[in-house]
Design a protein that fits this description.
This protein has one domain (2-21, 28-121). Helix content is 82%, strand content 0%. The chain has 5 helices and no strands. The protein has helices at 2-22, 32-53, 60-74, 77-89, 93-121. Helix 1 (2-22) runs parallel beside helix 3, helix 2 packs parallel to helix 5 and helix 4 (77-89) packs antiparallel against helix 5 (93-121).
């Protein structure tokens, strides 16, 4: 039952962070803020995973807080999917393709970099 509390608290923190970034005054038809959020979230989940896979003793509640809660509440894959589809519906095929490509490649790179960073600070 305690796990639910850690997930809820982390989810609230992640959702508030996502909302705050969405308030940035960026005027563009390209969904750059969602892309940035997903890259940050990917790096964060990579970092947390790297710490957990190290020899460091990490509470399972800490892992729930960060991975399931914060990252789950912060990242926006459903928004990414909607925005990509919207770009295609508006016949912005090049932007849609670039957005999907950058999201996948940069988020994979973010996970990789987050894990490497966690190894450097151990």
């Amino acid at each position: 039952m305690e796990g639910f509390l850690f997930v809820a608290l982390g989810g609230a923190a992640g959702a508030m962070g996502r909302y705050a970034i969405g308030l940035l005054p960026v005027k563009t038809s390209f969904p750059i803020l969602t892309l940035i959020v997903n890259i940050i979230g990917a790096a964060l989940i990579g970092f947390v995973t790297g710490i957990v896979s190290s020899d460091a003793e990490v509470s399972p509640y800490t892992v729930l807080f960060w991975k399931t809660g914060v990252c789950g509440g912060f990242t926006t894959f459903s928004t990414f999917s909607l925005e990509a589809l919207t770009l295609f519906e508006h016949k912005a095929y090049l932007s849609g393709g670039i957005y999907i490509f950058l999201s996948v490649v940069c988020c994979l790179a973010g996970v990789f970099c987050g894990k490497k960073l966690s190894m450097m600070i151990r």
